[in-house]
Specification:
This protein folds into 2 domains: 364 residues, Amino acid/polyamine transporter I (Up-down Bundle), CATH 1.20.1740.10; 153 residues, HUPs (Rossmann fold), CATH 3.40.50. It is 66% helix and 5% strand. The protein is built from 25 helices and 5 strands. It has a 5-stranded parallel sheet with strand order 3-2-1-4-5, with helices on both faces. The N terminus is likely disordered.
Length: 612
């Protein structure tokens, strides 16, 4: 069964916003991290790496449209070299996501501390608490909104431009000379020092890979949408990252650069625009950084789910919470490791930044090289192909330098990757099955996971159809009534039967929407969850012997109200019956209010009937 749903909600502008909310956060912490390594040469290296970023970004356009199912490095590497290599690429990006979660949370609270200094001594505790809250929100199933991303991305970009404008207006001749001098400091460095700085500066463009995760949500034609989205990412990053870095290093006093390296941009805002500009930077930076931390959590657990579906990780990770339909086990693992990292490093940004580079550059290498291999098989030997090979060589060199220079990152990333691959190979070859089945709790979880992933071949499920199939059979089973069920609702079903008989109809449409919150949904299930099966089975049994044909429809959507309204329009019904909501205001805030959504989206000639 293949669910029909409108997942392609992102135009190029919204796709840019989602990506910028990730990649745009690096400007808030990268200048300070790099300054700890290369001092006043920081602007030079960020500018140098910008050229490599542009070339790699152009390759990610093709990676995105070649993989409409999403999956990023896992998908492109699997297609190029096979599942095991795709699994290795997935382990690298998971390391990247772990560090993104940790570093974004820490940086976000450090920016808050620039306005409220008494919080500085509690950044580690606040960061761990913040990640814990994000874990709870993801278990409940917070719906990532492209509109919210757009608002935050635009706000952050506008504040960045204001800081840049205020700085440029206030620059005098000596300050211009200082900035230009910093941009030319690379001439004084040895070749190896240049390579080390170049490798470290790639951190300024972390988050680039997120566009390849968005492919399932971007509008068609995918090639055009990704081109425009990435063009916007490239332009906004060129305008902000190297410029803000140069201004921060050139204008901030040495004492500030030595003591406030975690929040260069807010201090720059204070210097060039006063406290008001600083406050604006802190508000946008802290919000965007915590949003990026949440995005990394989402990306990580989706990689876990993808690897579990491919048989590389235990099926237990695919288990979904019965109340919220979210992969709570995967979420808990995804958030526990960043908390451990924050505690072990005591929130020190330089250490976290060094560790970050391992997974980031590793994922870049695998994605870039995989695309080269696919192009080669397709017979491409043009200029674009060889520029792509050059891009791969650049990221390979950068990764190699980091492996040698940043040993803590290599030890951490290598350990996580090796453990992950051992688990993947062990699960793939059933090394652990016998041992696991001896543990009663694990045995029960594993059995439930396999039941949840069974195919729709059982007799009891043969009556379930998709919305497209319901539209096809409409001439045979016409009805003006659509029941929207969330759980077993005998009273609601009886109301639908009564209405249908009163209108002289012999059928009732019944829809169950399986909510999968998130823009990184990727591959959606082809079978309903346990609650969906039980709900629709109960509806089928309720109409037996009542001379009414129940048409059970199952679909998947990120937005239940949108899916129900779409079904009402396609089926041309004049009434949608839905039960009164028992969900709390907090739940509605996170997942959306279905009743309010239906009132906005239903066709004008379609009535909404709420049954208690």
């Amino acid at each position: 069964m293949h669910p029909t749903r409108d997942t392609r909600q992102l135009n190029w502008f919204l796709a840019w916003a989602v990506v910028f909310c990730d990649i745009g956060t690096s400007i808030y912490y990268v200048p300070g991290i790099l300054y700890g390594h290369v001092k006043n040469a920081t602007p030079f290296f960020v500018l140098l790496t910008t050229g490599g970023f542009v070339l790699l970004a152009l390759k990610y356009i093709e990676i995105s449209w070649r993989n409409p199912e999403g999956g990023g490095v896992v998908t492109i590497t699997t297609k190029a070299f096979g599942p095991m290599w795709g699994c290795l690429g997935g382990m690298l990006i998971i390391v990247d996501y772990f560090l993104t979660t940790a570093i974004s949370a820490v940086s976000g609270f450090q920016y808050v501390g620039s306005v409220f200094p008494f919080l500085d001594n509690h950044v580690v505790l606040l960061s761990c608490t913040g990640v814990g809250i994000l874990a709870a929100l993801n278990i409940i199933g917070i719906r990532e909104s492209a509109t919210a991303s757009l608002v935050m991305a635009c706000a952050a970009f506008v504040i960045d431009i204001i800081v840049i404008g205020a700085a440029l207006v206030s620059l005098d001749a000596s300050q211009w000379r200082t900035i230009l001098t910093h941009l030319g400091t690379g001439k004084e460095l040895s070749s190896y020092e240049l390579l080390v700085g170049f490798a470290a500066a790639w951190l300024a463009f972390s988050g680039l890979e997120s566009i390849s995760q968005l492919s399932p949500a971007m509008r068609l034609p995918l090639r055009r949408t990704t081109r425009w989205a990435m063009a916007a990412v490239i332009v906004t990053m060129i305008v902000t990252s190297p410029v803000l870095t140069a201004l921060a290093i050139g204008l901030l006093p040495d004492q500030i650069k030595a003591t406030e390296s975690e929040r260069f941009i807010s201090e720059l805002g204070l210097v060039v625009g006063g406290f008001g500009v600083k406050l604006a930077v802190v508000m946008t930076a802290s919000t965007l950084l915590l949003f990026a931390s949440n995005t990394a959590i989402i990306g990580a657990y989706h990689v876990f789910l993808a690897l579990a579906r491919q048989g590389f990780l235990p099926k237990v990770l695919e288990l979904r919470n019965r109340a919220f339909n979210t992969p709570h086990i995967a979420v808990l693992i995804t958030t526990s490791i960043p908390v451990i990292l924050i505690l072990l490093t005591r929130g020190q940004m330089i250490i976290l930044g060094d560790m970050y580079a391992f997974g980031l550059l590793g994922a870049f290498v695998f994605s870039s090289f995989s695309l080269d291999a696919i192009r080669w098989r397709l017979g491409r030997r043009d200029v674009g192909f060889w520029i792509g090979v050059l891009t791969t060589l650049m990221v390979v060199v950068a990764w190699g330098i980091n492996l040698v220079e940043k040993q803590v990152a290599t030890y951490f990333g290598g350990t996580v990757t090796i453990i992950g691959m051992l688990v993947a190979i062990g699960v793939r070859r059933a090394w652990f099955i016998e041992a696991l089945t001896r543990i009663p709790f694990i045995e029960r979880l594993q059995a439930r996971a396999y039941r949840a992933s069974e195919n729709l071949v059982e007799d009891e499920l043969k009556g379930l159809i998709t919305l497209a199939e319901a539209v096809e059979v409409k001439p045979l089973y016409s009805s003006s009534t659509l029941l929207a069920l969330r759980d077993n609702s005998p009273h609601l079903i009886q109301e639908g039967i009564t209405r249908a008989k009163g209108k002289g109809e012999s059928a009732v449409y019944c829809i169950y929407v399986e909510e999968w919150p998130g823009l990184f949904a990727g591959t959606t299930p082809h079978a309903p969850n346990e609650q969906g099966v039980e709900t629709l089975k109960a509806a089928l049994h309720a109409v037996q012997g009542k001379q009414i044909e129940m048409i059970p429809i199952w679909t998947v959507s990120h937005n239940a109200a949108e899916a129900i309204a779409h079904a009402a329009k396609r089926l041309d019904v004049d009434a949608v019956l839905i039960g009164a909501s028992r969900r709390s205001a907090f739940y509605h805030m996170l997942r959306g209010h279905v009743l309010k959504g239906l009132m906005k989206r239903l066709p004008r000639d379609c009535h909404l009937v709420i049954c208690n």
